[in-house]
Design a protein that fits this description.
With 155 residues, the chain is of the alpha+beta class. Helix content is 35%, strand content 27%. The chain has helices spanning 14-26, 35-38, 62-67, 71-75, 78-96, 140-147, and strands at 8-10, 43-47, 53-55, 69-70, 98-107, 111-120, 125-133. The strands form 2 sheets. It has a 4-stranded mixed beta sheet. A 3-stranded antiparallel beta sheet has the order 5-6-7, covered by helices on one side.
Length: 155
């Protein structure tokens, strides 16, 4: 996970702003207003001391805006990533003689599950399943109980 502390980040859409704010809240940053009131903003400054806080300045200089990191530079562009997946899948179909390929992904409570179905012109079907576990938040007390000894976090 990317630490937002002492960074300025710009977004290009309400969706990017909403995703950025959710990630920031997960990292423990406080919001100056409610999340829905902030998604229309395109410039976010994250400070770490004395408290983790998100600042939304009323005015921004060109220098500040130019030095800020773009959301897509940090996390990638979903459309470009999808295009890479489709390109790779198309090349795979061509290389192995499949004429149809379907890929499904679903979000569950504790994991993402995926399925791939490929079919040749002769009717041969290949099925593949995959699971990707979601990160789990755990307290030090739970970790100590699981390991059976005291834990000290060092950085």
């Amino acid at each position: 996970m990317i630490d937002f502390t002492n960074k300025a980040i710009t977004t290009k859409s309400d969706l990017e702003s909403e995703q950025l704010l959710k990630k920031a809240v997960a990292q423990g940053f406080g919001l100056p207003k409610g999340e829905k009131a902030l998604i229309a903003n395109r410039f976010f400054r994250f400070i770490g001391t004395p408290y983790k806080q998100i600042l939304i300045p009323a005015t921004i200089s060109h220098a500040e805006f130019d030095q800020a990191i773009s959301y897509t530079d940090l996390f990638g562009d979903p459309e470009t990533e999808l295009r890479k997946i489709v390109d790779s899948a198309t090349r795979w179909c061509r290389a192995y003689g499949y004429e149809h390929l379907s890929i499904f992904a679903n979000e569950g409570i504790d994991k993402f599950s995926g399925k791939g179905l490929a079919k040749t012109s002769e009717g041969i079907i290949k099925r593949v399943d995959a699971d990707v576990m979601k990160p789990r938040k755990i307290t030090i007390a739970e970790l100590e109980k699981q390991l059976g000894c005291p834990i000290e976090i060092v950085s």
